[in-house]
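Notes from hallway chat w/ T.B., transcribed later so I don't forget. T.B. wanted the structure written out for a chain they're using in a teaching module, and asked if we could keep both sequence and structure tokens in one place. Agreed to drop them here.
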Amino acid sequence: MSWTVTILIAAFLAPGVFLAPGAANAAKATAAPRAAETALTQSAAANPQSAATITQNTTESPDVRGSWKPETYRLKSGPVHEVTGLITFTEKDWSVLFFIVTDEGPRRGSGEGGTYTLDGDKLTFRHLYNLSGGHAVDGFEASDLSMKVRPKDAEDAPAEPCTISIEDDLLTIFFPSGNQMIFRRSSD
């Protein structure tokens, strides 16, 4: 669907690109998608004021780079926990340190990191480092301290495919477990 919109916008902004008579016009429009992309690019360059609208692609990946502070950790089973810490994304790497906090103070936590890929709203964490453990809290049993370090080229590094959404300065990560965490942007 987004390709059809791109062709229509290109045809509108670059008159004459698809004005071949009869059925040949339709064949050219479907058989030459690169021509439409070229026309779109040339039209955007000629009319920079509308370029942002023209080049906006709904499948583009949001920019997650920077630091985000966790606020809530919602478990699939229902409990919602207050969390504190920081998750940071660079161009290819990520790291997170977070704690579940109750009235008794920090009860459990995790320090994790590795590399990631982002394709549209599909964020996949590749886990190279993990340090976790803590007391039992609603939805989690107590766990002993666990440490794991893998080399960057490790073939056995777990991949965690997630879905994300960003609205204003809030990042929500939907984990494959059904749990989700909400983070607020803290820096660029």
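Follow-up for T.B.: Residues 1-57 have pLDDT under 50 and may be disordered. Might be a good example for the class.
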